[in-house]
Specification:
CATH topology of the largest domain: Rossmann fold
Organism: Paenibacillus auburnensis
GO molecular function: hydrolase activity
Strand content: 15-25%
Number of strands: 27
Helix content: 10-25%
Strand order of the largest sheet: 3-4-8-5-9-10-11-12-13-14
Distance between the termini: 34 Å
EC number: 3.1.1.-
Radius of gyration: 26 Å
Protein name: Serine esterase
Keywords: Hydrolase, Signal
CATH class of the largest domain: Alpha Beta
Number of domains: 2
């Protein structure tokens, strides 16, 4: 759940943002004049007013019970009605609560003012037009203007906080709860706290809620899985290596300054010399490599303290906090060790060995069920955690006030699908501030705005009718329809002649594609929003294909496609990647959704086992295939003795309309490198070009005893909601 996102300096269409801001301002003024009460998704007026024109900001350290100090920024409403206390909205992040650009030239300041709306050098969530890992200027200022205190806190071991970070360590939960308790005790707090944010910030919300702090009333987790093991470490049991290789320490933990890579240090908390400037609190980088940590021997050698640009003497607070981060264990050290969901790994001195069961979001579900916290789950169809978005909603909806919204985004809400579907990307994303305000008004201010009485689910139907309400997901009106693999690479609702198809595995198959905004290829799996559509036309040449005739009417697929393959292989084990694609009249293949499974995990188990191996007795919904992923459940020679194995692979949920004249395609590959590792059974070097690799032939069967097909959740046209 680690986002690595570059600044949008190069791609932000400022005219669109300014135009939309003016339109939104005009609409807001009109609504205020009429006092008409409107409350529906992305539209909200008449229930609250933007009565605070400004804010005051202060930064401080909050000490945890074990002595670790957490850095927080506090934004208090100002220039409005006198009010002693406010509800509070918290973001609890490992991605830097605020950034600072030292040594800015006049030219750089002018560029920043034009593109991001601030002269700098501090770039935070209330002064920047850019998205800063889940929030931006318009969003935060909307909260403040409507009478909320906004707080952003650096997770221990990150930013300007002290302490050591090991990804998904238990301290993230306990610190979160202590922060909530501290907020509730402050004079400017009325005791009602909400949280929001995506990815790791979604995780931090769930585990904090699992500690049941009394003041936490509502959370808005975005793009976060229920099960962390299959969500981001090993989807389908296959190691997601490209994501694991990201150097998150450099970006968010060691306060490096690498402007060519858009890497900036987190803003210090304490202005030690009292001159009102914070960039001079960052020690000098003597060797010019972007890091100040390797320039001094302090604190081991008190005679070699950090130096500062102004030559003033300090207590080195910022340096010492960052110095502790050198002990962090980065995610790319933890992931490879977690071969199975029950693999134990060390979480540091004084901590017992823990498993993915212990540290994943699912571990907090039982406690959340015993709280009254309201949950608004935000997911995106192209996000690798979208299954988890629905699992969290469906599993908790009967115990907690719950809602779910799913758009067309990737791991960020940014997505080329907005343009593809004729939507304004920036406008669509900006509207989430309004949706959050509706939610927090209801549960932190008690405003009866109807958000809890409307249908609980709001999804974007792609190529169809766009945004629409639903009462459940999967939809009660779905018609599960089997599409069978046939001879000559056909796909049909009717069974064809018995036979089989042989596919020679091609290690050159790679589901990622180039992006102008990234130094490497992108895909659903790398947690970065692409700027180009996922076109699979070329990669399909390296896969086994099954394609329908052009559909004779618009055909909606909304729900979970599930593939059932009957396969054998000349190798003992292997990995399978399934893609559902839309083929237009020209033959171009657009990726709709996908799934992955290591064949050695072919056996199915109760999906309730996703939560602590089933020990909690929680009914995980919806009922979807679950392959256990424990060490004892893995068969490393699943294809031995020419065995034909049934593989049941659920693809990510989707809501897509195949237009009349388009075809539906299933594409099957057995490698996806470098995004995923190559099966160790086939390649000891994990190199797709290694001549010593075992290149198996996979046989896909389609006969009465061994059917291969995909089941699609078809929504009848004109069907009732």
């Amino acid at each position: 759940m680690i986002i690595k996102k570059k600044s949008k300096l190069k791609r932000t269409p400022m005219i669109l943002i300014i135009t939309f801001s003016l339109v939104l301002a005009g609409c807001t003024k009109s609504a205020e004049q009429s006092k008409e009460k409107i409350s529906k998704p992305f539209v909200y007026s008449g229930y609250t007013e933007e009565v605070y024109d400004n804010y005051t900001k202060k930064s401080e350290y909050v000490e945890m019970s074990d002595g670790v100090k957490i850095a927080v920024d506090i934004y208090l409403p100002a220039d409005g009605p006198k009010q002693d206390s406010f509800p509070v909205i918290l973001q609890y992040t490992p991605y830097g609560r605020s950034f600072i650009l030292p040594k800015m030239t006049l030219f750089e300041k002018i560029g920043m003012k034009y593109s991001l709306g601030t002269w700098g050098p501090v770039l935070d969530r209330a002064n920047s037009k850019d998205t800063v890992y889940g929030s931006n200027k318009e969003m935060i200022q909307k909260f403040i203007a409507n009478g909320y205190v906004y707080i952003c806190a650096d997770i221990r071991g990150t930013g300007a906080s002290f302490g050591v970070k090991r990804d998904f360590m238990p301290e993230i939960a306990t610190d979160g709860a202590e922060l909530i308790d501290w907020i509730a005790d402050q004079s400017w707090s009325n005791g009602n706290v909400g949280m929001f944010g995506g990815s790791y910030l979604g995780y931090s919300q769930l585990v904090t809620a699992g500690e049941k702090p009394a003041a936490l009333k509502a959370i808005f987790p975005e793009v976060v899985p229920l099960d962390g093991y299959t969500g981001e470490i090993r989807p389908g049991g296959v190691f997601l290596q490209q994501y694991s290789r990201q150097d998150t320490q450099t970006y968010f933990e060691l306060n490096n300054y690498l402007p060519d890579k858009y890497v900036y240090p987190t803003t210090p908390v304490i202005d030690e010399d009292g001159d009102g400037e914070y960039d001079d609190e960052i020690p000098r980088d003597l060797n010019g490599n972007g890091s100040f940590l390797d320039d001094y021997k302090f604190p081991e050698d008190p005679n070699d303290p950090p130096q500062y640009a102004d030559g003033e003497v300090r207590d080195h607070i910022y340096y010492l906090a960052t110095y502790e981060h050198k002990q962090n264990i980065p995610y790319n050290n933890v992931g490879p060790q977690t071969q199975f969901i029950d693999s134990k790994h060390d979480y540091g001195e004084g901590e017992k060995e823990l498993t993915a069961y212990d540290v994943g979001p699912a571990n907090s579900v039982a406690a959340i069920m015993k709280s009254d916290v309201a949950i608004y789950n935000h997911g995106s169809w192209m996000d690798p955690f979208v299954r988890g978005t629905n699992e969290l909603y469906s599993t908790l909806k009967d115990t907690n006030p719950s809602k779910m919204i799913i758009d067309v985004g990737y791991h960020e809400t940014y997505s080329p699908f907005w343009k593809y579907l004729g939507e304004d990307e920036d406008r669509s994303i900006a509207l989430y501030a309004t949706e959050m305000l509706r939610f927090f008004d209801r549960y932190l201010k008690g405003i009866q705005n109807g958000i809890d009485t409307e249908p609980p689910i709001y999804i974007y139907n792609m190529n169809g009718d766009g945004w629409r309400f639903e009462n459940e997901f999967p939809l009660a009106r779905e018609v599960l329809t089997d599409y069978y693999f046939g001879e000559n690479s056909t796909l049909s609702p009717s069974k064809g002649a018995a036979g089989s198809d042989k596919y020679l595995v091609n290690f050159e198959h790679d589901s990622s594609w180039p992006s102008q905004d990234s130094d490497s290829n992108v895909s659903r799996w790398v947690m970065t929003a692409p700027d180009e559509m996922p076109i699979r036309t070329e990669m399909d040449k390296l896969a086994q294909l099954y394609t329908t005739a052009p559909v004779t009417e618009d055909t909606e697929v909304t729900g979970y496609p599930i593939a059932n393959l009957s396969v054998s292989s000349t190798a003992p084990d292997g990995d399978f990647y399934i893609y559902l694609e839309d083929i237009d009249e020209t033959g171009e293949a657009v990726l709709v959704t996908e799934g992955v499974l290591r064949a050695g995990f072919s056996k199915l188990f109760n999906n309730d086992n996703m939560i602590n191996g089933g020990k909690e007795g929680i009914n995980v919904l919806p009922e979807l295939p679950w392959h256990g992923y424990e060490e004892k459940q893995y068969d490393k020679a699943v294809f031995s003795n020419n065995k034909i194995v049934k593989l049941t692979i659920d693809l990510f949920p989707t809501s897509w309309v195949f237009k009349k004249g388009h075809s539906i395609r299933v594409s099957i590959a057995a490698s996806n490198s470098p995004t995923f590792e190559i099966s160790p059974t086939l390649s000891s070097s994990n190199d797709p070009k290694d001549s010593s690799n075992i290149v198996p032939t996979v046989t896909i069967y389609r006969d009465a005893e061994h059917q291969s097909m995909i089941t699609l959740p078809i929504i009848p046209s004109g069907g009732k909601k």
